[in-house]
């Protein structure tokens, strides 16, 4: 390890610690805010307890899963223990556990703060929209700072201690495998409750959202926390670590690891500054405040990294790659905003088609979802192409470095992105508790406005996360080839120069890999389906058997619904992820590294397509429903509204369960391939 | 050209002529059957006139389109006329026109016979189910024989006259480009009418399907003919010609063109025999009769080709490849039957979920559609892999020949497949005219049973057509590489050995290519959306303004609805296909042949995925609706039924507009690439 690498790893550590300090400061700041009344305390506690109960049970399952993986790593990875170096296997297992632990911690911190901020943001809304915004945003920022700080510090520590890029991969696999299941579990939990609550409450009984008579209402609010806050945190933690791990593998060969840590550190620093600067002006719009924060952070990041590049004499072309990635993230975000924003044509068109019934709502939204794939895929493709060419011009080995630099560039300002993203479910929850604690219509108006801003910001942050996943997995493909060739050289075999589409083994891999995200999403959606049907039945049971519930004289049995969501999610969270991992191993052991090269390609391609389709169509239906609810085409209660609710219900698992989980699925599959590279080289059928 | 090639081309011609004789015989046989009554004559004439009116207007537009393409070919393809050999450009243009003309003819013949058979099949149902079945099946067989005969004869003639594989590509492009637009136009027409008729008739007014009071009912029946008969005929004509063209390009280098004609001739011969043997036994089930015919034809094909292989001393391994393709087609068909068959679990599950409302119907069906992609993609991948390896063992140049042989093997019995497929819309129409002519419930029961068998058979035939398209485009990718390398050699440049995924130009192409089928399907579905909304308004207008219509005392204005479908389809049929072609040219002129290699790969992968998803989910919803209608979960008129109808409506453009058009889209894009190979080599930006 050279001095610059050590210096920059240490700087990364220092800035990570600074981010923890900021997180702690915001945590205290939020915690000191007042809570409106006893009813709200009570509701807040119900949500908090529900979320932690789920988290505990989820982590118990994931603990068992991780223990099994640890044993497998010790026995087989990167090489069977009787073949290779037992010490390395053990090191990898430890680092894997470290990755899972940090990823779990990120989720835990997120839920802790989110379940404090929700009630405080609702209370602050009694005073002013500015205060309410700040409570929500700073709550989100705790998560943002904690996630990015831990991921950067984790990568720096693992690299400083081991000095071995392959070990960093194991750390990343720990983070990703946990993220995969946390995302899936949280996504199933939240949508089970959300769908069941909407279908029975809004559609059948005609009671408002978050009405305390609805037995699923607490479960729905718990879901926002475990799905959108904890799950999303784990997801972005995973993307960030994976991008760094891939870059470390690629950069090791050309001595550019210092550059990697320089860029990521400056990204975190820029996010810290950006988060501090973000606030809502006296007459400002919350959605402009959120997006403004993102743009300011981008600007700070550009300036900081330019200075660092000039001082440390990094190649300026690599800096350009990082900028390209950042700009591409913003552009992809803006295009997905076009397809999902409630002030744009697609939402208005879909809302209009609701008048002709739900079939048209579905068909129209689905078509726009398909259309939305084009700009994002071209954007990712162009960014990869240009950054590759820029890197190639620097020298041998730099081409893939260009792509992975674009990926870390796109993820650099992720501290800010997560803050914006976690803000969404917090203010959504604030709306829920305000309704249940009876804070009145004025408060609801404010929280509705804040919530809508969260949805708009989400479009942009989702663009970032899908784009970043795309670039990351392309660089992971490069990292995989690197590791395969190391293994081939060690085994005295010729290196692989290409994953040639005309090679039938590669093509076979492509087709199988292409099917995996489809099956994976189907399994998650079926999980939501099954569970929410169970919950709908339970809600019917409660309304039919608890006297006085309909009239609001008795309380429903909230715990029962939380329990259904929890059990369902726990049961369903493992199979889909396991399927993806097993398919990877099967293809690798059957067809060897070339089949895996194809498999990853197919997986990336349909994974990105389905993720974009599902996220954007889901967001579109959600906003089309809100568009109708705000009084268009007949407003609430009209036939158009019923159709819009059906569209939204279909979109729920699209955008909050399957869509965002696919990101993690493609990362995990790529990491499994890299870890098993040596095994695939040694043992394969054909 | 060697003697064996000439001999086998001539045998192909002779068998093609035999198939025309059979087609003519069946045509006369059907025409002589009686028609029940004057009312039926009248309804039949309305349908027939509507179909031919649409066909005329469609062909006028396609004529203009073809004229433009002819000019472009003369000027630019395969090389700019001022660069290369003007004679070849003109030859290509003529052959292109020949391809479009034959493809158009296939559609024309199909509509002629289908609009005769429908009324006769309905009339025959008064006597017995056997007679009704024979009228429908032999009507379909006219189409089957005509399509396969023309495609084989066309390819043989073009090859005999030109002796140049590249010219056969132009013939294939003619067939495919027409098929693309005919399929799109027919698909938009039929679903516009079908959706509008269902939504207003079944859902709003509660009148039965095919009720003569519904103004869209004739348009709906016209749609079956122009969409399912003519469009499907053009589609399979195109697949068959494309598979032959790709094989000819690949086989030319290794002198195996005689083998290609031998296999395809025997396939047609087997289909002729199979069609003659097919009939419905006294207590037989129509669906077993249809599938039984397919299996018998497969057996005859296997025996005939084995004999020919042994006598003509072809390599037995190539025969195995053909068998592999055939078996894969059947297996893929059986798996799609699992996902869409009304006696299987998925249909029952989706029907059950209808009880919980349309959102669950959609989510559940969509999930099964996603799951259904896995076995088919693995099947196509394995077939390609094994046949490549078998070919590779024969010698250099034979590897791709293995894959293309598997493709022609899968398509070999297409004569039988088309007969089964065209049977479906004919008996569907028979049901319609029986209802409108008031033939009574007994006849409706018979036609319902025949119709259900058509739907089941369709699952298997769709498996064949998607699988065959997959294998065909893989071999077209090989043909493209072949042509690129010829052009590179001529230009004195080094040949391309691989389309390497790690080459960013290839990867860029993959991502852009992946987006094309998504956008293409979205454009077609939006077309259906827009038009059916217009038609729904028109139907409302008629019911509100024509006195006595509701009570059945006056006739509705059928012509107005036919006109809306026609205008809409004519307006929408060009843009989607043109988009795909323009994207291909743009990527090629920007990134050169390597970008196109990636583009085709991405296009195939997501194309197959979306085609499978849409076809199977659509078929599943259709049968789930029928399952509910047959009395399950509350039966007709229940809430479950309403949800099932919404699912079916969403599925309509999935399975009959977008899904099947994607096949043709990927073929056309591959052919455009091959034709423009020389241009892409010469002129590209990067």
Biggest sheet layout of chain A:
none
- Mean residue pLDDT of chain A: 92
| Rounded Rg of chain A | 24 Å
Number of helices of chain A: 19
Shape of chain A: globular
Oligomer: homodimer
Structural class of chain A: mainly alpha
Low-pLDDT segments, ≥5 res of chain A: none
Largest interface: A-B, 79 and 78 residues
**How many strand elements of chain A?**
0
Structural key phrases:
ion transport (chains A, B); homodimer; 686 residues; mainly alpha; PPase-energised_H-pump (chains A, B)
Structure, explained:
The structure is a homodimer of 686-residue chains. Chain A is mostly helical. Chain A has helices at 3-31, 38-76, 86-124, 129-162, 165-205, 217-252, 257-277, 286-312, 316-340, 345-353, 358-371, 373-394, 398-412, 414-436, 441-490, 504-545, 558-629, 639-675, 677-682. Chain A starts with a helix and ends with a helix. The interface between A and B is large, with 79 and 78 residues. Chains A, B: The chain crosses the membrane at residues 6-30, 61-78, 90-116, 137-161, 167-189, 259-280, 292-311, 318-339, 366-386, 398-418, 464-484, 505-525, 573-592, 599-621, 662-681. Chains A, B: It comes from Candidatus Pullichristensenella stercorigallinarum.
